[in-house]
């Protein structure tokens, strides 16, 4: 498949949009680093919902119940997400309540103006991608639920580690906003083409 043919693939286009959206938001919609971080949190929540649907399908194919695993996974993800939010708020609001209130006001405005549309759109994108790349080709039939679960959580904790790494790099450097966005994008690309691919492969039967 040529590079041009790859670019015509709607799922490649979706991934490129996901990569470029923070830059588009920064340069054309006045998104701050706080809003871009919020976008990635939204994306992670949508990704977790996608995982729960896939895992339930794999367990159903194996004729096994998924309720206990889904409950545990949801609770652990909620705790992990809270930890990520604490780390992010510590970075964006390190100087007390005044700065924290500014960040919260910014997030409220974002939720009112754009989040109501952006979050359902991200969910829809994940749903369509899953339908065409996982459910219709019946990829769940080639997955082992235990491996799928374990490697998913290895990937989730890797995301947390990368977030901490990115924040430490940003804290210790006087970076322009664009450079900070570049760090986040570079770490996302590294994750997607290493940890995520390994996790997908290792979860096969």
CA-to-CA gap between the ends?
A: 27 Å
Instruction: Look at the helices and sheets and give the structural class.
Output: mainly alpha
What's the rounded overall pLDDT mean?
87
Global shape: globular
Whole-angstrom Rg: 18 Å
Q: Spans of 5+ residues with little confidence (pLDDT < 50)?
A: none
Q: List SSEs in N-to-C order.
A: HHHHHHHH
What is the helix tally? 8
Got a strand count? 0
What keywords describe this structure?
single chain; 205 residues; mainly alpha
A few lines on this structure:
With 205 residues, the protein is mainly α.
Architecture blueprint of SSEs:
Elements: H1 3-8, H2 10-28, H3 33-61, H4 67-92, H5 97-135, H6 145-171, H7 177-193, H8 195-202
Helix pairs in contact: 3-4, 3-5, 3-6, 4-6, 6-7, 6-8, 7-8
């Amino acid at each position: 498949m040529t590079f041009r043919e790859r670019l015509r693939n709607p799922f490649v286009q979706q991934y490129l949009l996901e990569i470029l959206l923070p830059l588009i938001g920064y340069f054309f919609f006045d998104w701050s680093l706080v809003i871009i971080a919020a976008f990635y949190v939204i994306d992670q929540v949508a990704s977790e919902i996608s995982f729960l649907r896939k895992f339930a399908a794999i367990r159903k194919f194996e004729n096994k119940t998924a309720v206990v695993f889904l409950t545990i996974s949801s609770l652990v993800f909620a705790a992990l997400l809270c930890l990520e939010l604490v780390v992010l708020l510590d970075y964006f609001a390190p100087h007390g309540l005044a700065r924290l209130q500014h960040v919260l006001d910014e997030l409220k405005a974002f939720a009112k103006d754009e989040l109501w549309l952006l979050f359902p759109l991200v969910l829809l994108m994940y749903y369509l991608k899953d339908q065409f790349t996982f459910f219709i080709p019946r990829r769940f039939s080639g997955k082992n639920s235990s491996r799928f679960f374990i490697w998913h959580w290895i990937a989730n904790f890797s995301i947390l580690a990368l977030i901490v790494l990115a924040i430490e790099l940003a804290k210790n450097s006087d970076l322009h906003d664009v450079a900070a966005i570049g760090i986040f994008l570079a770490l996302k690309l590294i994750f997607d083409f290493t940890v995520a691919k390994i996790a997908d492969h290792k979860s096969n039967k």
